[in-house]
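Hi support team,

I'm filing this because I wasn't sure whether my run with zinc ion finished correctly. The job status page said complete, but I'd like someone to confirm that the output block is well-formed before I use it downstream. Pasting the exact inputs I used:
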Amino acid sequence: MKELEPKFRCVGCKRGLLNRSVARCLYCGADVPEEARLAPEAIAQRDAVHARMEASRARLAQYVPPKQKEEGSPALDFVDGVATGLDVIDMLGGGLSLLGQVLD
Ligand SMILES: [Zn+2]
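And here is everything the job wrote out:
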């Protein structure tokens, strides 16, 4: 597997910049060049995505699978389960593609 190469490196210690929303290197405190910093809009967008992801996670955590009825239609329960699963996949997929847009 190819090693992940940081897009920007610190001018002081040459380490990869992990957090481009800060103005200084986390390791040596050197100034992060303007072009390596995230634009404020990008940071705001990332935070918005993060908030959405958190909301999705909270929804998932609250989800309780429907109780199996002792007498009922197994077919209906199956359809219900599949629909819920698709909803979850759709939600996660949306979050991932949004992340992809933010992280470059
Ligand atoms: Zn540094």
